Amino acid sequence: LLYRPEYAEHQGIFTAMMAVGTLVYMIAVLGNGATSARAFKAQAILMGAVVLATFTASAILIPHYGLGGAVSAIAIGLSVHIAGLVLILTRLLRKHENTAILPMLSIESA
């Protein structure tokens, strides 16, 4: 309905893009957690790493694999983003592991 017949040649690429797109939802959840924890500096550094990983993967994969390489490069960049956010959140949780998430849920007596 929305695409012309030329797009049918790349049906597999569209499917792969949809699959890779699911990583964006994971990044949204993890990124909101990192932002809520005010980990702005760590996120800025992470974004630099994501750009570098995506750029490098694109430079290597796209000339050899075309559109499939582009999808792979995006997947690599998003995977770096997820791994970095998991690392940021894990470090924050370990830093505050003895702190109650909500004061009213604290097991310790007041």
Q: Uncertain spans, ≥5 residues at pLDDT below 50?
A: none
DSSP strand content = under 5%
Helix content: over 70%
Which structural class is indicated by helix and strand composition?
mainly alpha
Largest sheet: none
Tell me the total number of β-strands.
Answer: 0
- Could you tell me the mean pLDDT? 89
- In DSSP terms (H or I, runs of 4 or more residues), the helix count works out at 3
What Rg, in angstroms, do the CA atoms define?
A: 19 Å
Mass-distribution shape = elongated
**Distance linking N and C termini:** 63 Å
Summarize the helix and strand pattern as letters: HHH
Description:
With 110 residues, the protein is mainly α. It has helices spanning 11-36, 40-65, 67-95. Helix 1 (11-36) packs parallel to helix 3 and helix 2 (40-65) runs antiparallel to helix 3 (67-95). The termini are far apart.
What's this model, at a glance?
The chain is mostly helical and 110 residues long.
Please give a handful of descriptors for the protein shown.
single chain; 110 residues; mainly alpha; 3 helices; 74% helix; elongated
SSE order and pairing:
Blueprint: H1 11-36, H2 40-65, H3 67-95
